[in-house]
Every structure is written in structure tokens, then in C-alpha cells.
Amino acid sequence: MQKSMFTAYLGVAVLATATLATVGGTPATADSATPLGLPAYGDHVVDDDHGHVFVSGGPTGNGVVVTNRYGGVVKTITGQYGATGLALDAPRDRLYVANAAGDAVSVIDLHSLTEIDRIPTGAQTCPTHLTRTDEVLWFGYGCEGTWNGGIGRIEFPEPEPPAEPQVTLNRQGSTAFQRAPLVTAHDDCAGPLVAGQPYLSLSTVYVYDVDDAHELDTRTSGTAPGSNLYDIALDQRGEILFTGAGSRNNAPAYSTEDLSGRGSYHSGYHPLAVAPTADDLHIAVGVRATGDDVYVYELGGVIPTERLDLTGDVLAPRGLAWSADGDTLYAVSEPPAGGSPTLHVVDVF
């Protein structure tokens, strides 16, 4: 079993150890690392209400592993074809799973941990990334090699059932995505919703408002994040956009009004994951590196307060998520050449 560790930054180099350490270097609460038995990694989300973490197996896998809050495996939900993006719907007690190899979004009951519905998105759509605004589910879709992608919408009429979810494609208007776009949103009914074109040079991000008819209206767009975009995230007010792009040595932040700068967080080269806490006090920034993989900053801070080294592994793209209280970080790693992921549970604060 692999170990991960946090050590405090003192403004000087600190030797890493395989334990969680305080500022003075005294070992404190140990973390856990759980091999998940999946072929690859797609996404992960934390369901604090039910004490579970969900990890999907990526476009070549057909399952979602469920662990408890400490990383112990509870169940594997099978039959999820190309399980990639995940989105929680706490008001409905549901988890949505993008089936990139199944042209559908499946619905998982958060109590029974079983599939209760499957929503087709259309042949050769390959839904890949998910997000929500209030009662609407949005998905970035596009099959590899087709150089064509878009943003889809799933609306859930009331009462439900018997009303069927309504799927609409191409909600991005005239924007041309060359593969499934990353999507993230503020959960307010009006958004904003942000979409980003991953892996390209340059990568463009689009900020949309959501109108009363659940249509997307472009607020602003630009290539400020750089090339090879891996991850996007919003603060809890939907006012600040954080990005991780491989061409950078930092994770810059932008206003969602006009993409004007709102600082940056140094990470070293190839940042590929950004995750602010729900209380907007801290942000975790992850890189693909053989040394320190994750840095935790106070929002607006100058130097990282904590760092994480996934010994023997590298951080997976979009591989960071926090508990709701902002105390525990869930990081997913993978072998340097790719392969089966490991879930690391680290008590940071």
C-alpha cells in the first residue's frame, strides 16, 4: 500500500516523510491510501451527507468504486460504460454518472447505491464531464477522434416520475469545441457555467449565464489560462475561476465577469488539478511531478501552508476534492505511465 504525506512549508526545504506532519515535523494523524482496482481514473466526488466517496474508472472502465469517508471500499457499481464525469444532486439524493462509452447518463440512488435510471444522450455523443445549476444537469460531450464536441442539457420535469428527463444538445451556440469540454458551474439557477476546451494550444474558456429558459448566454471568453487545460473550478460564489493548464508553472485565478486576473498560486510545472474548499478559505493545487504533488494555499496567500508527496505515483488529472468542512483532502493518484488509481485520504486541518 502506498503512503502519502503532508509536511508544513516553513519557507525552506523540508524533507518529506511517509506521515502527516505538523509545522514542527512531529508525526500527527496518518493518512490512508486505497488501491481502487479500476483500469484508470475518470472523476471523483465526495458525498459528506452519506459518508461516501465515488471514484469513476474512466472511458475504458465500466464501474464506479464507492468508499467510506476513510477510504475503505464499500461497493463497486458496475455496468457504468466508460464512467467518467460525476455530479452530486443532494436535494434528490442522486449521483449522476457520465457514460462516455455508453452514450448515456446514469442515475445512482445515494441511499441504496444502485442505478435507478439511465438517460440516453444520443448515439455517438460520448458524455464525459458533468455539472449542475440548480435543477438542471449539464454535460460536456464529444467522442475522441471526431474533433467535435458540445454542451448538453438535461432537465428534470416535475412531478417525476412519470415525466421523462428532457435532453437537449448543442447548448453552446456557435462555439466549436474539438472534444468534450470541461464544465463547472455555480449551483445557482443562473450559474455562471464555465466550459473549457481541454488539452489544446491555446485552450479557450467560456463563461455563460443561464437564463430563465435554461439557455446559455455567453458572458465572456478567452485564452488566458494557457495551453493544455486540465481542470477548472469556481469559488463558492461563482465569482472566481481557478484553472490548471499544463503550459503553466502556477494555477491562475480570474474574475468570471471578464477573465481579469485575480492572482495565481505557484505550483511548479504542469498543474493539472485545482480544488477550492467550500468555505473559500483554502485551495489545493496539484501538479504532475515526481516530488511534491499537491500544494495547499490560503486563498490569496503567498506561500503554501501544506504540501503532499504521492510517493511512487503521480496525481491524476482533476484528482483533487475536499470534504465539505474543508478539513480532509481526497487525492487520486495513478502510476506515472497510467493505470489503476489509488485514493489518498489526508486530514489536512
UniProtKB/TrEMBL annotation:
Signal peptide: none annotated. This is 40-residue YVTN family beta-propeller repeat-containing protein. It comes from Micromonospora yangpuensis.
